[in-house]
From TrEMBL:
Domain of life: Bacteria
Lineage of the organism: Bacteria, Pseudomonadati, Bacteroidota, Flavobacteriia, Flavobacteriales
BLUF domain mapped to chain residues: 1-92
Signal peptide segment: none
A Pfam family matched in the record: BLUF
Protein name: BLUF domain-containing protein
SMART domains associated with the record: BLUF
One MF term in the entry's GO annotations: FAD binding
InterPro entries: Acylphosphatase-like_dom_sf (IPR036046), BLUF_domain (IPR007024)
Length: 145
């Protein structure tokens, strides 16, 4: 098994419908291809980690790289992985847009992610990097409130 983590920049016009479409496609495709992972969308940026057979996740990354809904896809980690860290999550998804847009819910969203990132004791380098990027995203945003 193998895993990878990348970051990318959402196009300015990305809508809630786009996010729901991505999630729906990801859940269906990843489930049938035994790929698990997690996707966070925050402040115009995506961070995603994918876990599965090496060819499977790199073929998927190629498709994702060609997706018009984002740009600047930057692979920050790839390597072999033993454990399935996001077991059962074909594509777990976190976005403040799914929980309303009031500043209070945004702060809750960030707080929850920061807490998760702090307590997440992952053996996997890819997932540790994933959570550290998520934490940075949240802290950078928090400073601008
Ligand atoms: C940030 C982001 C993450 C995505 N993650 C996945 C994913 O995990 N699985 C998936 O099948 N598609 C994902 N997609 C959608 C793919 O880019 C693509 O639209 C999908 O694979 C369908 O491609 P096709 O129409 O060429 O088959 C993602 C798109 C974006 C923008």
């Amino acid at each position: 098994m193998h895993e990878l983590t990348y970051t990318s920049q959402a196009k300015k016009n990305v809508s809630l419908k786009d996010l729901n479409d991505i999630l729906k496609t990801a859940n269906e495709f990843n489930k049938t291809h035994s790929i698990t992972g997690c996707l966070v969308y925050h402040n115009g940026l995506f961070v995603q980690t994918l876990h599965g057979a090496k060819k499977g996740i790199f073929d998927l990354l190629k498709k994702i790289q060609g997706d018009e809904r984002h740009t600047n896809v930057n692979l920050v980690w790839e390597g072999p992985a033993e454990k399935e860290v996001f077991k059962g999550w074909h594509m777990a998804f976190f976005s403040p847009k799914t929980s309303g847009k009031t500043s209070e819910s945004l702060i809750d969203f960030e707080r929850n992610l920061i807490t998760l990132s702090t307590f997440y004791k992952a053996d996997s380098a890819s997932v540790r990097i994933f959570w550290s990027i998520v934490k940075d995203l949240c802290l950078n945003e928090a400073q601008t409130h």
